[in-house]
């Protein structure tokens, strides 16, 4: 072989590792015994209602306004006072703007018939709305008429009624800002009703509609907020939430009582799991209706508002409840609203969805049939049910309803978009591409559909490797400029993934500790995405997401573990995928019916990894401060954390509670709970049947058990053991900082094994010896490691100490401490690589232990798993394999080097030399 250096196992201690150990060691030197310091800053508090923009205030104060003009302008901008509502018409106008659609003024014959018709339309009283319009032909009247006709299923009549106004909009003959905005709202509806194959007349494009709204503000008045509200509605329809929020914020600065804006913001908040914000918007909607009849300042309206005043507030709260897996609360909220608005179509549609999400499909179908008698042929309620089921991961049932919605209104892109995303998440790629192609043809400007279709088309080009239970798909490398195939690093990783994946399958699906004892009916697809934006689109249709891997049922997506500007870095993907595969298996066993915290807890439990110290510190502090979640709050901790600690706390506490269940009721208990969830049982009922306890009793027992765990960890004093503060009182010193190490010696002798005291002593020793903790304090560090086994600090100090030894025998003493650190490491391969080198060196020395070569192999493989595209780790793994005469493994790593660094000719030369050697030696 021309390059014998590949055989050289002597490898000096990694500079990266020494820097890492030194950095982490130094970070632990300051005194830590008197409290934990994680970031617990609260999330940004909600601000008050936005003030009116300065131009609006100037317009309202204009001296030339007549009293009537001033009143009307204040009503338009939502800044009216009770005295301004001096006629039925003005009260009705204010009520409609506030979406107080049951207000008596909206039934007053003296109110504007169009305001009364609009309110009747919103209440679902369609015939009343049509009768009030009579022969009115203004764009607003036409919009109300078309909406009413469409809502009752008269699509052809709606198209006919809309045609003249849409023609005027296209011709540019509408010159009144209100007329233009109403025509744009009309066009957005008609775009749903018109079939794309043979439109009766060319419809305005999205850009044309946005341009028309822009013209309202540039040509007529920059203060015309209805144009901004409609712009927001169009942006939301295109799944452009960020731009919609900006437009809504601007609209609210022009209209203090913009209820339509509040409603859209509430929907956005629910969709982003910001339930606190959703509740604020709902509460504001509830406040608006009483203001109309108050003879008081608007600030006092909150005292007079009652929850349930606004049906729109009820729907925001109900959607939030459904998102939080509490459809029973949603039913209560919606039934209360339906008692006042029994024909309101949005309420009826959402009520059917709530029944579906609580798996009462008979009731949901009955409600859909009743909806059909009121609005024959309308897809609204069926779509609402299908979308809610998709979000609940009830993919098969969801597809049935979404396909019905699609067939009822073929020109409406939303059912196609939801079907496309649903099929992508359930691994049905051909169906996903077909649906998304149709969606983007119907609506070329929908951001989520466009992103998802691009990825779906790209996935069709992916290559795949398979094992008994998995399919791994990866993006092939682009060909070289000369057209020849280029090596694909992800192809190397994909092939290497199959063995660890099958090992994961045995752990997760087997009957070992925590095993789910269930196998999915189909192979699980692992999509290995080349970068983080691609991964985000794969999961949510948008390029930003907070994680590196996610399971959506039979499909798991992960981003390639590498460093770079479009990546989140290297990570222990076998552990991560074991977590995600647990989701796949638990969702399969339960039919996707499982509390969020419980599936996460099972997944963390089956990672089979030790808790890191930050997690132990967090659990300790939350237990001491009575800050652990209840069984409702823990689900919110995952999906909408209020504080920076909420999501890690939810994972940690869920895992802890799962461990408690297994240790208290046995390993069968979680599986019995899962089976009840599969039958549709709610959590409280399942706990009573399986655990024989209520949720509150469960939490009480868990807290008691957890206290014992903290004692085992050395994070809580043992029975009868004094606290550190009580011990220090006997030292008769003003503060712990004033004590020297020598002054602590008698206290250490009096309280052997006291974790907090040992930690303080180590900090004092370090301070008095320029940070050289281990030199002269090895015994102290080992005592502390025994007293508080969850803290990596002593192991970091001891590892750093032994790695600096000149003699191999001294350096080998670092192994036990590096093993401790590596077992808890999730992102860096440094510990594993260092261990591989140490094991290999010891195996080749007179001090060899049985199993050293096997350990060197395992650690070198782990290093290349965490950082599969690091050439140094690949070379290390190849060297170890060659020394073990494992030539297949060695060649695999040499081939990986060629793919990882194709411009370094030495890799190809080494590979060819190695192959030639194997041929010569018959290996």
Key phrases:
globular, Serine Threonine Protein Phosphatase 5, Tetratricopeptide repeat, disordered N terminus, mainly alpha, 46 helices, 2% strand, five-stranded mixed β-sheet, 923 residues
Q: How does this model look, in words?
A:
With 923 residues, the chain is mainly α. Among the domains are: 4-29 and 794-921, Tetratricopeptide repeat domain (Serine Threonine Protein Phosphatase 5, Tetratricopeptide repeat, Alpha Horseshoe), CATH 1.25.40; 278-396, Serine Threonine Protein Phosphatase 5, Tetratricopeptide repeat (Alpha Horseshoe); 412-456, no CATH class; 461-592, Glutaredoxin (3-Layer(aba) Sandwich). It is 62% helix and 2% strand. The protein contains 46 helices and 5 strands. The protein has a 5-stranded mixed sheet. α13 runs antiparallel to α14 (275-291). The longest helix is centred in the middle third of the chain and has 21 residues, at 489-509. The protein is globular and about 105 Å long. The model is unreliable at 1-12, 22-47, 196-200 and 294-307 (pLDDT under 50).
Summarize the structure.
This protein has 923 residues and is an all-alpha fold. It is 62% helix and 2% strand. The protein has a five-stranded mixed sheet.
Number of strands: 5
Span between N and C termini? 14 Å
As a whole number of angstroms, the C-alpha radius of gyration is 33 Å
Mean pLDDT across the residues is 88
Low-confidence stretches: 1-12, 22-47, 196-200, 294-307
Helical percent range? 55-70%
- As a percent range, the share of strand residues is under 5%
What gross morphology would you assign?
Answer: globular
Separate helix tally:
46
Describe the sheet with the most strands.
Answer: 5 strands, mixed
**CATH homologous superfamily grouping of one domain:** Tetratricopeptide repeat domain
Strand order of the largest sheet: 1-2-3-5-4
Structural class: mainly alpha
CATH class of one domain: Mainly Alpha
Look up the CATH topology of one domain.
Serine Threonine Protein Phosphatase 5, Tetratricopeptide repeat
CATH architecture label name of one domain: Alpha Horseshoe
């Amino acid at each position: 072989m021309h390059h014998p250096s590949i055989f050289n196992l002597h490898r000096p201690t990694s500079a990266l590792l020494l820097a890492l150990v030194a950095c982490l060691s130094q970070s632990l030197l300051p005194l830590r015994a008197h409290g934990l310091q994680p970031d617990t800053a609260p999330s940004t508090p909600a601000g008050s209602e936005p003030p009116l923009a300065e131009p609006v205030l100037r317009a309202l104060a204009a001296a030339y306004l007549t009293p009537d003009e001033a009143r009307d302008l204040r009503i338009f901008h939502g800044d009216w006072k009770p005295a301004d509502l001096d006629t039925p018409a003005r009260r009705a106008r204010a009520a409609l703007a506030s979406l107080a659609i049951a207000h008596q003024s909206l039934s007053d014959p003296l109110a504007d018939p169009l305001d009364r018709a609009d309110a009747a339309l919103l209440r679902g009283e369609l015939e009343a709305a049509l009768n009030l319009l009579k022969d009115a032909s203004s764009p607003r009247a036409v919009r109300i008429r078309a909406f009413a006709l469409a809502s009752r299923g008269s699509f052809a009549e709606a198209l006919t009624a809309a045609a003249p106004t849409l023609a005027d909009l296209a011709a540019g003959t509408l010159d009144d800002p209100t007329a233009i905005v109403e025509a744009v709202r009309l066009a957005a509806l008609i775009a749903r009703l018109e079939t794309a194959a043979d439109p009766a007349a060319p419809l305005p494009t999205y850009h044309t509609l946005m341009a028309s709204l822009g013209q309202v503000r540039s040509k007529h008045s920059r203060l015309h907020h209805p144009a901004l509200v409609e712009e927001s509605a169009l942006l939301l329809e295109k799944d452009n939430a960020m731009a919609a929020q900006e437009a809504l914020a601007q609209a609210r600065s022009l209209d203090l009582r913009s209820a339509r804006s509040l409603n859209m913001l509430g929907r956005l908040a629910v969709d982003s799991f910001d339930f606190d914000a959703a509740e604020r918007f709902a509460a504001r909607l509830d406040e608006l209706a009483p203001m109309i009849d108050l003879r008081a300042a608007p600030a006092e309206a909150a005292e007079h508002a009652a929850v349930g005043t606004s049906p729109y507030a009820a729907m925001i709260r109900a959607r939030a409840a459904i998102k939080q897996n509490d459809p029973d609360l949603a039913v209560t909220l919606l039934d209360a609203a339906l008692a006042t608005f029994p024909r309101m179509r949005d309420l009826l549609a959402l009520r059917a969805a709530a029944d579906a999400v609580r798996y009462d499909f008979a009731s949901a179908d009955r409600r859909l049939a009743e909806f059909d008698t009121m609005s024959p042929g309308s897809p609204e309620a069926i779509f609402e049910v299908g979308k809610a089921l998709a979000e609940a991961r009830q993919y098969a049932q969801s597809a049935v309803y979404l396909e019905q919605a699609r067939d009822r209104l073929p020109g409406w892109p939303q059912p196609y978009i939801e079907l496309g995303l649903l099929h992508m998440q359930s691994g049905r790629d051909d169906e996903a591409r077909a649906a998304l192609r149709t969606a983007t043809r119907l609506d070329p400007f929908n951001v989520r559909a466009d992103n998802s279709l691009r990825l779906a088309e790209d996935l069709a080009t992916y290559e795949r490797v398979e094992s008994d239970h998995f399919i791994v798909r990866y993006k092939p490398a682009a060909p070289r400029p000369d057209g020849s195939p280029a090596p694909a690093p992800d192809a190397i990783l994909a092939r290497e993934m199959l063995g660890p994946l099958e090992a994961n399958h045995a752990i997760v699906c087997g009957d070992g500790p925590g095993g789910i004892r269930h196998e999915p009916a189909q192979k699980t697809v692992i999509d290995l995405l080349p970068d983080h934006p691609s991964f985000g689109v794969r999961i949510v249709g948008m390029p930003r997401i907070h994680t590196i891997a996610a399971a959506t049922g039979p499909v798991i997506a992960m981003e390639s573990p590498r460093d770079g500007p479009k990546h989140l870095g290297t990570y222990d993907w076998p552990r991560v995928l074991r977590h995600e595969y647990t989701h796949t298996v638990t969702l399969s066993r339960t039919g996707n019916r499982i509390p969020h915290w419980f599936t996460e807890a099972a997944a963390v439990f089956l990672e089979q990894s030790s808790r890191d110290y930050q997690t132990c510190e967090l659990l300790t502090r939350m237990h001491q401060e009575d800050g652990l979640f209840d069984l409702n709050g823990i689900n919110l901790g995952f999906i909408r954390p209020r504080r920076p600690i909420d999501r890690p706390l939810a994972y940690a506490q869920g895992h802890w509670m799962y461990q408690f269940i297994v240790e208290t009721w046995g390993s069968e208990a979680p599986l019995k709970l899962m089976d009840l969830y599969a039958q549709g049982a709610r959590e409280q009922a399942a706990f009573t049947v399986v655990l024989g306890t209520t949720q509150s009793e469960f939490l009480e027992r868990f807290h008691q058990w957890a206290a014992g765990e903290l004692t085992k960890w050395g994070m809580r004093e043992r029975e009868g053991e004094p606290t550190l503060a009580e011990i220090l009182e006997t030292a008769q010193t003003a503060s712990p900082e004033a004590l020297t190490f020598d002054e602590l010696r008698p206290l250490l002798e009096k309280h052997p094994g006291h974790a907090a005291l040992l930690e303080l002593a180590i900090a004092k020793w370090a301070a008095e010896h320029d940070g050289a903790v281990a030199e002269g304090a090895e015994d102290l560090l080992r005592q502390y490691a025994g007293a508080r086994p969850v803290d990596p600090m002593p192991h970091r100090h001891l590892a750093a100490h032994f790695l600096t030894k000149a003699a191999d025998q001294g350096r080998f003493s670092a192994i036990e401490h590096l093993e401790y650190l590596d077992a808890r490491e999730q992102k860096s391969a440094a510990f594993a690589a260092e261990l591989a080198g140490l094991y290999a060196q010891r195996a080749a020395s007179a001090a060899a232990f049985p199993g050293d070569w096997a350990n060197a192999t395992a650690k070198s493989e782990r290093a290349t798993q965490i950082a599969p595209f690091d050439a140094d780790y690949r070379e290390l793994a190849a060297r170890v394999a060659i020394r073990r005469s494992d030539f297949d493994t060695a060649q695999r790593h040499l081939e990986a080097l060629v793919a990882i660094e194709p411009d370094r000719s030495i890799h190809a030369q080494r590979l060819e030399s190695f192959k030639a050697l194997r041929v010569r030696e018959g290996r």
